Amino acid sequence: MAIRWGLLGCGDIANKRVADAILADPNSELVAACRRDESRLKEFGRQFGITQLTTSAEELIARTDVDAIYVATPVNLHCQQTIAAANAGKHVLVEKPMALDPVECQQMIDACETAGVTLGVAYYRRFYPVVLRIAELISAGTLGRPLSVLATTGNPNRFPADDWRVIKSLGGGGPLMDIGSHRLDLFLQLFGEVKNVQACCADSPDYEAEDVATLLVQFANGCHGVLQSYFGTSETPDRLEVIGTEGYASTESLNEGELKIVTVQGARSESHPPHANFHAPLISDFSQAILSGRPPAVSGPTGKQTNDIIAAAYAI
User: Mean pLDDT score of the chain, rounded to an integer?
Assistant: First the structure.
């Protein structure tokens, strides 16, 4: 049995990765797609061989030949569309960040639990081999007692003031919400519960949201985490580094997977590149979760944890 997907939102991420990931998954079938712009929707359909097209989200969600909805719309639409899909008996995989705030996240979780459908959040970097390798080094004690994790990330785009990513009511915030959320999810994956959050966000002179955010988090196990995220930076590294009492592991380009490991035994380099389509392992895991009746690797409650941290940061 294949999971029959409806794709809600056919913008950048759907074009670059999501549609291809669904089409390539042996347990999935891409049945229908929805976009408000009809001409772009038709082009999307031609590109990916999708014949069932609609400009109505309600129509897509109501289709009886769709089992799961991938929500790839702006963040302010995630909650209402997820709840509508759950009420229609559809499983939901929603783009990150999960919603505008933790209250919306909980509403989504509750709706999916009530309907008995699976809810997942598209934090696909959890599946990166380099991240799994770092987790292995931590677990094996190779780095000694972990002390901290650092992530630095930037988006070179100079967003116009009317882009949803920089309007708080549409995107929820700036780089902290859009790209920082991915790294916070990795913090949670590597070190678990966060018990304290400190933050500083700098307002942009060009748009409503911040263009730089710096977070310091303390984990329940005593480790520290530092996140720096930016919009409009052209040469920002995509760094992830874990430091322990006996060494450190660091990658300067998370999306490439080149890893440097330095311990008391010496230094070495390893290569752990991600899947050619970053979303492929995410789609595969979610479809298998539905078919086997297990939770996905990135569940609704897991996705909400990142929103909890972001909400605490913006409240400071």
Answer: 97
